[in-house]
Please model this.
Amino acid sequence: MIDDQALFRSGLGLVIGSQPDLTLVGEAADGADALDLVERTSPDVVLMDVRMPQVDGVTATRTVCEKLGEAAPKVLVLTTFDLDAAVADAIDAGASGFLLKDAQPEFLLGAIRAVAAGSQVVAASATKSLFERFRSNQSRTPGREYEQLTAREREIMLRAAQGMSNAEIASAEYLSEATVKTHMSRILAKLQLRDRVQLVVYCYEHGLL
Model:
């Protein structure tokens, strides 16, 4: 957990510590210590405050994701404002989602578990405005990476970007869930994307949604 507010870290630490399946392995007060903390503790998920006095959460997230690559932990960004423009930058930098700091403890704990399992979490109150920002920043049509996708992969990509789960996609496409998972892995690899959040961003940036 990386947050410059000691009281918030303490309170969140108590909440996490109360869960038998979750363990807080370390904490820091600024993004400048993010990479060192992650390398020392090897967490599955990092809770990252988006705004800190020295190195902000966006920069820290980008550093961790770029330096550690596939070995990087999932990053769940925490913010005070539901329309915080920095959140979009954090997702673009590699974060797997974001939540508001005033989220209910049960929701926060569920989000941590979901991100650890490979899912993505985005605060519902800000989803539309967040991705409309990416839509407004469209600058190009899909390139060669998109051309590598088969027709079926493009269909699955759009369904995933629209928020459908693997089970829902499997039902709609008359495929097994395992086949959908395989297709999703290939789609992300071809587009060089980390996860479904970045897939949604990609689709908005290129006018596919």
Remarks:
- The radius of gyration is 17 Å.
